[in-house]
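Morning. Coffee machine broken again, so started the prediction first thing and wrote up yesterday's gels while waiting. Chain of 196 residues, entered below exactly as on the submission form.
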Amino acid sequence: MENRWRNLLVVVLVICAVLALFYLYSTQKPAFVSDYVAFISLMEKYGIDAKYFPQTISGISKLSDSQLEKLSSELKAFSNKTDGAWLKDLSLIYSDFADMQLNKKKLEKASMQARSLGAGVCDRIIMFKEMGERGNKIVELSSKLFRGTSDFISKYPEKSEEIKIYVVPSSVQLSKIKDNYKMQSSVVGALMEVCK
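Came back before lunch.
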């Protein structure tokens, strides 16, 4: 075989190898990339910048009750579809945070209604009961968020640094949340006994 044909064959083989590698790379990468783009788009639909954890948390905190409910359910659905482990975990963290914010808002509304009613304490027992349930849910979600963010940081240290994730709530904040709602729960329990 002449040198020029051998060189041409080598060039063709190199081009085929490069194309094969490009094809493999392009078929492997889009699943992750498209999932991440879908995640960012989902959050942007609610006006949330999801590239960094602090901005995402801040954005979720500003949503209305109905937006929090929708976002939470969409994030749970997204976590079931995505193949990226870190993206699945992060979407569940944000879903839990949205649920916690929703319960906080509903607790505040029930508390304001209970104070604004002119009726006696026992006439407001339904609202006190709702306040107790919301408080318990906030404690449960706070504990879940503490574990979720702590686990995320230990499982994905590079990604954690990239998105600037931190433990929410901190251990001190979690302890205060538990103490506050434990006291609220016991007050509601005492009222329920008095109003039987």
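Residues 34-194 form one domain. Going to sketch it on the whiteboard this afternoon.
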